[in-house]
Specification:
Blueprint lengths: L1 E4 L8 E10 L2 E9 L3 H30 L1
Length: 68
């Protein structure tokens, strides 16, 4: 969900892409602040930021197998 935001110290608005998950394990908010246009900001979040998180479960499983 992208939104425009400007802190008092910023000269112009920036796009903030937010993903907020709530589960029984707690809240998991994630934000990217960028000067990219809205669609590019959304792509950055989806294609780069989220994709890096997809590698952690596989790395964790591999590390668990090695240490066993």
């Amino acid at each position: 969900m992208p939104l425009a935001y400007a802190a008092d110290s910023w000269g112009k608005s920036r796009f903030v892409v937010a993903k907020i998950e709530v589960s029984d394990k707690g809240d998991n908010p994630r934000f990217i602040v960028t000067s990219l246009l809205e669609e590019k900001a959304r792509e950055l979040y989806r294609d780069l930021y989220c994709a890096r998180g997809d590698t952690w479960p596989a790395a964790w499983r591999t590390a668990s197998k090695i240490s066993s």
